[in-house]
Amino acid sequence: MSTLGEVASHIRSKNAGPFWLTIDVFLPDAASFEKVCAQLSTDEVARRLGAAPASVRRFEIADLAVIKFSLPRPAVQGSVADRDMHGASFALLIGDIELEAG
Amino acid sequence: MGVRVLVPSGALGLGWEEAALAAGLAAGPDLIAIDGGSTDSGPHYLGTGTSKYSRASTKAEWAALIDARARAGVPLIIGTAGTCGADAAVDWLVDITREIAAERGERLRLAVLKSGQAPAEIAEALAERRLEPLPGAPEVTPEAVAECTNIVALAGAEQVQAALATGADIVIAGRTTDTAIIAALPLARGCHAGAAWHGAKVGECGALATTRPNSGSILLDFDEEGFTLTALGPGAGATPRSVSAHMLYENADPFILHEPGGHLDVRRARYEALDAARVRVTGSRWVASPRYTVKLEGARRAGFQVVTLALVRDPRYVAAIREWTADIARRVVEKARARTGRADFSVELRLIGLDATLGALDRAARAGSEVGVLGIVTAGDETLAGEVAKTLNPYLLHHPLTEDEPMPTFAFPFSPAEIARGAAYEFCLHHVMALDDPMQAFRLTTLEVGP
C-alpha cells in the first residue's frame, strides 16, 4: 500500500475564484498517472473534503500527467467560516488516501 | 499583422527582474500590459475599494513602467487597478499617476475605464431575474445585493479595445478579466481569436508559465495562426509543459475559460518548443456565445470583528483543550446575551496548533506542547463586537477546568488583548449579467495629467 502523497510528485490546492477550490495532483510519469487514474476514487476525494461526490469535477490530463479536482469551496473564500483564504491547505487532506499495491 | 505584448510581471506590486524587463523593451513591444489585482486575497479589498499592496511600492513600480512606456513609445495598460478594480481603487491609481507625472514634469494622456455598478440597480436586476447564477453561486437576496459596498462587472476585450482606441498613453482600467487587457489588442488587429485569449491566459501571471517565475517579465507574440511565449529573465526557459500547465492554475476547468462574449477551448492546443526560451502554441479555439454577458463580483459587510489570542501551555489544559474551549464558548455566549440584551453575534474559538487550518476535515489533527486559542467575535456592530470580546477575556485568562482547583492564568501576547478588525466583508455575487452593448455597464473617460 502506498498513499497518494507518496506516489504524486506534488499536490497543490488553490482558489479558482472565491467560490471554487481546485486541487492539482501532479504525477511523475505516464505509468503512475495511469495507475492513479484507475485507483483514485472521486468519491473518496469528495469524502476527505466533506463534499458531495456529485459536486466534484474530475479532469484527467494525460499530456501533463495531472489529475485535477474542482469543487465548490467548503466555505466561501473569506467568509466568517473560512479558515484558509487562499485554499492552500486542502491539498493535504487527500495526500493520505491509500492506493492499492502494484 | 503580428502583435507583440510585453507583460512585465504577474501583478503590479510583485516586481520583476530589471534584465527581463529590459530584454522585453529591446524587443520592441506594441503594448505593455499588467494586471493590477485579483480576488485571491479575499473580500476586504473589494468591500472597501482599496489596494492590497502598499502605495509606495505601487508608485515605485508604476513609475518604472511609465518610464518603460516612454522608452518603448507604446501604450501601457493596467487592468483591475488597485487589487479590486472598484472605482475608488481606480481613482487611487489615477492619483498616483498624477503625482508621478507632476514629479517628472511629464504630460500624460490617460484613458480611465470604470467597472463599478450601482448596488440598487444590480439588486433590481436580480429581483427581475436578469442575473444568471454561475455554478457554485451563493444563495443571495436582492436585499443582500443592495447592501454591497462595491459591485464590479468584469470588462472583456471590447471595453479594453475602446479604451485603447482613445490613443491614450496609459489606460487605467477597473475590474477586467485577467486576460482582457492582453487579448484586446491582438483581437482588434485581427489575430487568431483562440490564440489571443489562450496567450493572454498563459501570460497574465507573467513569468509563472516559465521555468523561473520570479523573473517576472515575458513576451507574447500573436499572429493569424497562434501565439509564441518568450521567457525573458536571465536563464529563464519556457517549455511546452510550463506553458500548458498554466491552464491548471487557479482555474476550475483546465480546458475551458469563459470570457465576455464566448469561451476559450484549449483541448486541441498544440505546444511546440522553438528553443529553450520560446514555446509556440496553435490550435486553441474561441467559441463565440449568442449573448454577451459579463461576470459580476460584489462584497458586503458580514459584520464587525474583534479577535483575541490566548496561549495555553499547561499540559493538563492542552490535553483537554476542546472541552475547555467548548465550555468557554457556551458560557461567554450566554453571559454576553444576558449582559448586552442582544443575540446578533457569534463567538468562535479556533485552536492554533491543533486544527485551526482545516477544522473538522482534519483527520490527522494532534496537539503539540501548546495551543493558541484564537477567539473570533463577529457581531452586528463594532461596539457589540468589542463588548462580547471583552466578555470573553476573563474566561480565556482564568477559566478553570474543574471547580476545585487553584485559579489558573493563561498567556496573552498583547495588551489590550482584543484586536479590532473593523468591518468584515464577504463575497456575495457569482453571477453574470447580459448586456445589449458591451459598453453599457462601463464608463470610459479621458484626461491629461502633468504640466
Automatic annotation (TrEMBL), chain A:
Top-level taxon: Bacteria
Source organism per UniProt: Meinhardsimonia xiamenensis
Pfam families according to UniProt: DUF4387
Domain DUF4387: 4-90
InterPro entries (UniProt xref): DUF4387 (IPR025496)
Protein name: DUF4387 domain-containing protein
Automatic annotation (TrEMBL), chain B:
Record InterPro entries: AtuA_N
Short name of one Pfam family: AtuA
The protein, known as: Acyclic terpene utilisation N-terminal domain-containing protein
Organism encoding this protein: Meinhardsimonia xiamenensis
Residue stretches making up the Acyclic terpene utilisation N-terminal domain: 77-185, 238-400
